[in-house]
Amino acid sequence: KILILDFGSQYTQLIARRVRELNVYCEIHPYNHFPQPDESVRGVILSGSPYSVRDAQAPQADLSAIKGRLPMLGVCYGAQYLSQQFGGEVRPSATREYGRAILSKVVANNPLIAGLSDRTQVWMSHGDTIVKIPENYRIIASTDTVPVAAFQIEGEQTWGIQFHPEVYHSTEGKQLLKHFVVDICGCRQQWTPDSFIESTVRELRDKIKGDKVLLGLSGGVDSSVAAELLHKAVGDQLVCIFVDMGLLRKDEFESVLKSYESMGLNVIGVRAGDKFLADLAGVTDPEKKRKIIGRDFIEVFDAEAQKLTDVKWLAQGTIYPDVIESISVNGPSATIKSHHNVGGLPEKMNLKIVEPLRLLFKDEVRRVGRQLNVPADILGRHPFPGPGLGIRILGEVTAEKVRILQEADKIFIDGLKESGLYDQVWQAGVMLLPVQSVGVMGDERTYENCVALRAVTSTDGMTADWVHLPYDFLAKVSNDIINRVKGINRVVYDISSKPPATIEWE
Ligand code: XMP
């Protein structure tokens, strides 16, 4: 495997994903908690960083155990660090060095770049530049403005590159990473969904043995794939609980439950909508609503779990970005998914935690799911917030408002699917606004609700842009909602990006 030493760059995860796309396993570790590499480690990549190596508080890593012993590739800050620490010099760049640049080889046959085209496009993003390299370093490629765009240390399997091979706009970036991890480090390209499933199933069996495992299903990709993987490993020792908070999409509880049953899972479906609605009565503050929904979820889940006997394990659908975030250089940041953590249950029932997907990125979870025959409608499903429609009904939540929103949402989502637009959108939904406005239907004046349609593109929900849905499509959806959903006489489309807006309205 490859270890990635993280100096805090926004691109570190992208490096890991690119390496994994080469079917080579890699792990990210913070620069200040780097493990002693064992014999399974074939090479190390040093990431970029938001810091300058000249900053007093710049991240410092002790490379003595690895440099010169294992192949190493420094990217951006990583390259500058390798220069500055060993006698080179790094200064602020005289010209802006962001975006496109053309890389020219200085040494044609260097194994890192030999296979690339002669003038290949690379992507730069740095405020500092290496002005002097140490004596025993050799420049292997330059750009018009950056003489030291790539170097190798003589007699050592250590390279530095100033550009970012991991980003899409470095046209042959993946090829360069392949030269490093496959040709230079000698990693075999065997990290595939099949191999992951095989080894994980084996590990799960060894770990869980004959014990019973409990898992909370949400209808989303992660918990569903985790369930299928565990089911393959331990069969009916896996018991799943799927809670209906009454705040799911229309008919979703029934249809997802059916999918789970068809997957052969042992699922307990709990209908608890009334409890949630009763507890939400009169509450308008968004954060209070979230807390109530979270607390109720835990109560319902716990009560159901307590009925089971002999459970020893609690399985969770934690994925790699959650793991990285919790150990990250910048420290754990506030997590928005906290309500899915099933509270104090592990202590109360004395449960051990098992997280079969904790090494996978989202796209890998989908690939594994496909291999496990998890139904396509589950794998391709848009993200959906834990508190469900509860935070898409602005203000107080009532049964009538849930009904109205479910109807409108179904028309929008079905419309996206029928028009082939669903897969081009990262997340979509409808918000029921606390606004009534005047309309006219037939000869009658109406005074009814307004809904906002929301559809965004994103990769991780951190930033998002609204989707330019075709006017004809919006016109049809608007028409269908107003004509068919009693209680709505106006539809608007949300054209705000995140930031400064958020995806949800509450
Ligand atoms: P925002 O609205 O912050 O949402 O732009 C970003 C992503 O997170 C989802 N979201 C939540 N998910 N519990 C969740 O599990 C929550 O309380 C919550 N709030 C927002 C949202 O749907 C989007 O995908």
UniProtKB/TrEMBL annotation:
Oligomeric and partner information: Homodimer.
GO MF term list: GMP synthase (glutamine-hydrolyzing) activity
SUPFAM superfamilies: Adenine nucleotide alpha hydrolases-like, Class I glutamine amidotransferase-like, GMP synthetase C-terminal dimerisation domain
Entry-linked Gene3D superfamilies: 3.30.300.10, 3.40.50.880, HUPs
Binding site for ATP: S218, G219, G220, V221, D222, S223, S224
Name used for this protein in its record: GMP synthase [glutamine-hydrolyzing]
Record-linked InterPro entries: Class_I_gatase-like, GATASE, GMP_synth_C, GMP_synth_GATase, GMP_synthase, GMPS_ATP_PPase_dom, NAD/GMP_synthase, Rossmann-like_a/b/a_fold
Record keyword Ligase present: yes
Reaction equation(s) it catalyzes: XMP + L-glutamine + ATP + H2O = GMP + L-glutamate + AMP + diphosphate + 2 H(+)
Protein purpose: Catalyzes the synthesis of GMP from XMP.
Swiss-Prot/TrEMBL keywords: ATP-binding, Glutamine amidotransferase, GMP biosynthesis, Ligase, Nucleotide-binding, Purine biosynthesis
Listed PANTHER family: GMP SYNTHASE [GLUTAMINE-HYDROLYZING] (PTHR11922:SF2), GMP SYNTHASE-RELATED (PTHR11922)
Pathway: Purine metabolism; GMP biosynthesis; GMP from XMP (L-Gln route): step 1/1
Domain GMPS ATP-PPase: 191-381
Organism: Alistipes hominis
CDD domains: GATase1_GMP_Synthase, GMP_synthase_C
Residues at the catalytic site: C76, H164, E166
Enzyme nomenclature, EC number: 6.3.5.2
